[in-house]
TrEMBL record, chain A:
Transmembrane regions: 6-29, 68-90, 102-124, 237-259, 265-285, 297-316
Protein name: Formate hydrogenlyase
Native source organism of the sequence: Actinomadura physcomitrii
Keyword Membrane tagged: yes
InterPro entries: ComplexI_Subunit1, NADH_UbQ_OxRdtase_su1/FPO
Keywords: Membrane, Transmembrane, Transmembrane helix
Membrane topology type: Multi-pass membrane protein
Coarse class of the protein's main subcellular location: membrane
UniProtKB/TrEMBL annotation, chain B:
Protein name per UniProt: Formate hydrogenase
Lipid bilayer topology: Peripheral membrane protein
Cellular component aspect of the GO annotation: plasma membrane
Origin superkingdom: Bacteria
Region Disordered, residue ranges: 1-24
Regions of compositional bias (Pro residues) in chain numbering: 10-19
Principal localisation: membrane
Domain NADH:ubiquinone oxidoreductase 30kDa subunit intervals: 54-146
Length: 318, 522
């Protein structure tokens, strides 16, 4: 695929959109929860205010931590930005489209998680190790499910390139309506919740150290480092929700057209906001699962993804 | 539900023929250290429980007082309170340990050792309890000659936690500073994977020397301290203190005042139980129910403010009397009761919430009895102890019911609270009938005591049975006040219930016990 100006502008727009919009998505979800629970809420902009506050603080590095701890927050943020540049968020004509491979994207996501898990171990505290152990358990079940469920969608296209999958769906929208998509969508939705640390797998709002998964791992971070970690996790949430949206409802995603780009950006923002709102509203009525029930839930979603793959082979000939 | 007692339903309406319900049978005996274990064993075997043990410094001796209490069983078997006084040589204060007879006795002895330097002989676990490692050795703060607190050092080194060894066992130290707005306590988990093998709780980080603050004050000046023993148990501790002082002075307050006090006590139980129901839902991540319980709690706090002028009920119980600005409206309370019942049903109807509660950290009845647990923790494990029935200061029959559950898990502790809310509202509705608001007090007494006096107050606070014992000098100043919050009895039950639970369930289980740090650490 040739590099076009529109594609490059589109990719840049995607990065800016995800980078700037991710904290707003988190703010929106908190606001939805607050309103549904009868609270006033802090406003959609609060995560940005928190990030600004954290950026002004002094970073504190615990005694005995090494370079892993200091470098780790950069990795999830950097990988999230790379994913934002390559995957079809607003345009399928990103100049880096070749990297928008299913396996590459999943590996990038895992790289960020592994970096934070290593940093958690590097602190040498009980919480860091505990959080890392729990996060790795969840990740080990989540990553294969993401791979397999997207793979189910790639069978009919004959490519694991996410741009190709989205383009194909854009051209033949009727193909979305199939048992394969349904199974894959459910599987992806469950793992998105798990990967982003939402209820019922993890509770991002808790102050109880002993129940934390993701938060326990990053407990030792402070100041700008913590801001980076928080920003990265917000971006990952935005990316995963956007991926779910565009794999099953890609309308609005543009090709190499400059004129359509603002519309595509707006469509993406709207889709992610709706999905985020639905997720937050669903969380209000959910409770957190017992830790040992989480693998059952994730194994279930993996089975759904596997069924989706199997079904895609059966249904491809008809 | 257990029936409160054996009162026939067709109680005659005329003047009561029963002996007054609030006249316990009292015995106080001076015993020698050699016969103490036998006397204690006989009392414990006779169905008494050790409610309190406290050391005192007399001019010529150290004196230890054991208070044994036995529940009232109907009109022929009144409540019994037996005190054993043991005098010790201040130069060599050695006491035969009762730890093998009663688990709580062992803990009281360790407390006396740390605060007074009294040595329990042959104690199976003679480790420090109250004293932290920065207290100097040989400094006993409750003794008269203790003086100002010395500089903190590190004479002991860290606490000798028992290390669990084996493949894959690791330790998680938590606290004493926690992420949430809770009191300080250090928890040391020995864990394999996520399963808790052993938990050791180290408390007494908020030891303030509260009992020493009472010394030398007049009861009126000490009442504000009693109200602040534990912030959520204002009425419970204030009332136990007032009852103890009135008991010491032989001051009898009118039945109407006692009923006002009983209303305040139930109001305190209501708002705290509602808070706990919400917090339990919040700890499993179901925050909307917490928000709803928070709404009900706010209504109850406003009711408290109407009743006493203070949202946490301060100033409601006074020496020799009570202040009730407005009688709580039974209709409003019944509306709240329906609201609470609906919310509790919503919580338990939610499969994930029910799954998190059911079977989590069960405390067996045997363990609950052996450890001497009190309050809803004991009742959730099937032990129907309730000082409102067993040690009544006013007759709450027939409205009072004492619910118990059998399973002793988090679910049982949730359900017991929900049922106690209904029982409390029934009691308040009954008491409020025909009551008029006002301030009544029989304080100060007409004659101050001419010789040293002592008294005991027993109250079923919302957490469980609170016992205060005061000693007054001639003239009426306090020479010694011993406070026993039910948390002192219930804390050891938490690690027992948690053995075999998983680490992420700890906050939930801890909340289901909801023990006071301030009331325990004093």
């Amino acid at each position: 695929m040739s590099v076009t100006v529109a594609g490059s502008v589109g990719a840049a727009a995607q990065v800016v959109l995800v980078g700037a919009g991710a904290p707003l998505l988190v703010g929106l979800m908190r606001q939805v929860r607050a309103r549904l629970e009868g609270r006033a809420g802090a406003g959609v902009l609060q995560p940005w205010r928190d990030l600004r506050k954290l950026m002004r603080k002094q970073p504190i590095t615990p005694d005995g931590t090494g370079p892993v701890f200091r470098v780790a927050p950069l990795l999830p943020a950097a990988t999230a930005l790379v994913i934002a540049a390559v995957i079809p968020i607003a345009t399928t004509a990103s100049p880096l489209d070749g990297a928008a491979d299913l396996f590459a994207v999943t590996a990038l996501l895992a790289l960020g998680t592994v970096a934070l898990a290593l940093a958690g171990l590097d602190t040498g505290t009980a919480f860091g190790g505990m959080g890392a152990s729990r996060e790795t358990t969840v990740m080990a079940l989540v990553e294969p499910t993401i791979l397999v469920s997207v793979f189910a969608l790639s069978v009919r296209v004959g490519s694991t390139n996410l741009g190709a999958i989205v383009t194909s769906t854009l051209h033949e929208p009727q193909r979305v309506i199939s048992p394969v998509s349904l199974l894959a969508a459910i599987a992806l939705a469950v793992v998105t919740i798990a990967e982003t640390g939402r209820i019922p797998v993890d509770n991002p709002a808790t102050h109880l150290e002993l129940t934390m998964v993701h938060e326990a791992m990053v407990l030792e971070y402070s100041g700008p480092d913590l801001a980076l970690v928080e920003w990265a996790s917000a971006m990952r949430l935005t990316l995963l929700l956007g991926l779910v949206a565009n794999l099953f409802a890609p309308w609005g995603v543009t090709g190499a057209s400059m004129a359509m780009l603002p519309l595509a950006v707006a469509a993406y923002a709207a889709k992610v906001a709706v999905l985020g709102g639905v997720l937050a509203a669903g969380e209000v009525f959910m409770a957190k699962l017992r830790m040992f029930r989480v693998p059952e839930l994730l194994a279930g979603s993996f089975v759904l993804a596997l069924l989706a793959v199997a079904a895609s082979f059966f249904l491809v000939g008809t | 539900m257990n029936s409160p007692d054996d009162t026939p339903p067709d109680r005659p309406a005329g003047p009561p023929v029963d002996p007054p319900i609030d006249r316990p049978e009292r015995v106080a005996a001076e015993v020698d250290t050699r016969v103490l274990p036998d006397r204690a064993a006989a009392l414990l075997g006779d169905g008494f429980r050790l409610a309190l043990a406290a050391a005192h410094q007399d001019p010529d001796a150290l004196r230890v007082v054991y208070l044994f209490t036995k529940a009232r069983h109907g009109r022929d078997d009144p409540e019994r309170r037996t005190e054993l006084h043991v005098r010790l040589d201040p130069a060599d204060p050695v006491l035969p340990s009762l730890a093998r007879l009663s688990f709580p006795a062992g803990r009281f002895e360790r407390e006396m050792h740390d605060l007074y330097g009294i040595v329990p002989q042959d104690h199976p676990l003679p480790r420090r309890l109250v004293r932290h490692h920065h207290w100097p050795r040989g400094w006993y703060p409750m003794r008269d000659d203790a003086g100002a607190p010395p500089r903190f050092g590190d004479p002991e080194g860290p606490y000798p936690f028992v290390q669990v060894e084996g493949p894959g066992v690791y330790e998680i130290p938590v606290g004493p500073v926690h992420a949430g707005m809770i009191e300080p306590g250090h928890f040391r988990f020995s864990v394999v994977g996520e399963t808790i093998l052993k938990l050791k709780a180290r408390l007494w980080y908020v030891h303030k020397g509260l009992e020493k603050l009472f010394q030398g004050r007049s009861p009126a000046a000490a009442l504000p301290i009693a109200e602040r023993v534990s912030g959520d148990t204002t009425v419970g501790h204030a009332l136990a203190f007032c009852l103890a002082v009135e008991d010491a002075l032989g001051l009898r307050v009118s039945p109407g005042v006692q009923r006002m006090r009983a209303i305040l006590l139930e109001l305190e139980r209501l708002y705290n139980h509602v808070t706990d129901l919400g917090a339990l839902c919040n700890d499993v991540g179901h925050s909307i129910l917490n928000a709803q319980f928070g709404r009900v709690r706010e209504q109850l706090l406003r009711l408290n403010a109407q009743a006493t002028g203070h949202r946490l009920l301060r100033g409601g119980v006074v020496l020799g009397g009570a202040v009730l600005r407005a009688v709580p409206d039974p209709d409003a309370l019944r509306a709240l009761e329906a609201d609470i019942a609906e919310l509790a049903d919503l919580a338990l109807g939610h499969t994930v919430v029910a799954d998190r509660f059911t079977g989590t950290a069960p405390l067996t009845a045997q363990a609950a009895r052996d450890l001497g647990t009190l309050g809803y923790v004991a009742r959730a494990s099937g032990i129907g102890a309730d000082a409102r029935r067993d040690h009544p200061f006013t007759d709450l029959r027939p409205a009072l019911t004492v619910p118990t559950a059998a399973t002793g898990d988090v679910l049982a502790r949730f359900q017991i609270r929900a049922r106690e809310i209904a029982a409390s509202i029934a009691v308040v509705s009954d008491l409020a009938f025909g009551m008029s608001p006002g301030a009544t007090s029989y304080w100060p007494p007409l004659t101050p005591p001419a010789e040293p006096a002592s008294g005991v107050g027993i109250v079923e606070g919302w957490r469980g049975t609170i016992v205060h014992r005061v000693e007054l000098a001639p003239g009426g100043t306090l020479t010694r006040t011993k406070i026993v919050d039910p948390s002192f009895f219930n804390w050891p039950a938490l690690p027992v219930a948690l053995a075999g639970a998983i680490v992420p369930d700890f906050p939930l289980v801890n909340k289901s016990f909801n023990l006071s740090y301030a009331g325990n650490d004093l």
